[in-house]
Design goal:
Elements: H1 2-20, E1 28-36, E2 39-50, E3 57-65, H2 69-72, E4 77-86, E5 89-98, E6 108-113, E7 118-122, E8 127-131, H3 139-153, E9 159-162, E10 167-182, E11 185-196, E12 201-208, E13 214-222, E14 225-236
Antiparallel strand pairs: 1-2, 1-14, 2-3, 3-4, 4-5, 5-6, 6-7, 7-8, 9-10, 10-11, 11-12, 12-13, 13-14
């Protein structure tokens, strides 16, 4: 009886772990070179991992400036998002942003209450509630949702993003395919442009299908000029698509 109970318990634990792990979420740690207006400005690390206590995942972006920019941002700029995946897709739970400055005046913390449809956003000087529609994301969980959606459906769509003080829709345009050379090698990519309605800023992303649509290059432009660019240097722990 004792042996049978131990076997049953082990099977139950294994089944629970299988339910908790979502194969559509790619986990990885990727390192990027950061350029600002064509000059080497530092490094960025993007990582996704499943937390050990269940079905919650974490996206974390850490940007470390160098040179003159480090004088303004001496500490790492960090974005961190906790999220789950359910029948409706990626669902953010909590989001943090640390701006990397000494004062942290632009730091933000957001908590999502999906029963009420509210995100409570706390900053250095204010606390406010934003109404968030079903399917809304934060900046961190957006990175996961884009890769997941491209891999599972092959289709780009518009996303609603809850930011520091507003909820806005971002339009996505599929620009087709391109071969791009990076520090990490040559990649066949799917090119997608993101733009908030009415904004002069655009973000163009080169996603690599062979790497589960991991971005290999990201460019942020204003009025057609590239301001900031991230280029993949290496990636670790990226499991193949099941």
């Amino acid at each position: 009886m004792t042996r049978a109970w131990m076997i049953a318990a082990a099977l139950a634990v294994a089944a629970d772990e299988a339910r908790a792990a979502d194969a559509t979420v790619a986990t990885y740690t990727a390192t990027y070179r950061v350029d600002y207006k064509g000059k080497d400005a530092g490094t960025a690390e993007l990582a996704v991992r499943r937390l050990p206590d269940g079905d919650v995942y974490e996206f974390k972006s850490t940007v470390m400036a160098k040179g003159m920019l480090k004088l303004v941002r001496p500490k790492p700029a960090i974005e961190r998002s906790l999220f789950r995946v359910d029948a409706d897709g990626v669902r953010p739970l909590e989001f943090w942003y640390e701006d990397g400055s000494r004062s942290g005046e632009d730091n933000v913390h957001a908590v999502f209450d999906w029963d009420r449809g509210i995100a409570t956003v706390s900053g250095a000087e204010a606390r406010r509630e934003l109404a968030v529609p079903k399917g809304a994301l934060d900046r961190g969980s957006l990175q996961v949702a884009r890769m997941r959606d491209l891999e599972t459906s092959g289709v780009v769509r518009n996303y609603t993003i809850a930011d520091d003080d507003s909820v806005a829709e971002y339009e996505y345009v599929d620009e087709g395919t391109a071969t791009i050379a990076t520090t990490s090698g040559s990649h066949e990519t799917r090119v997608v442009t993101q733009q908030r309605t009415g904004s002069s800023r655009k973000t163009r992303v080169w996603f690599a299908p062979a790497m589960r649509f991991l971005p290999v290059r990201i460019e942020q432009t204003r009025d057609g000029e590239v301001q900031t660019a991230l280029e993949l240097v290496k990636v670790d722990g990226l499991a193949a698509k099941p």
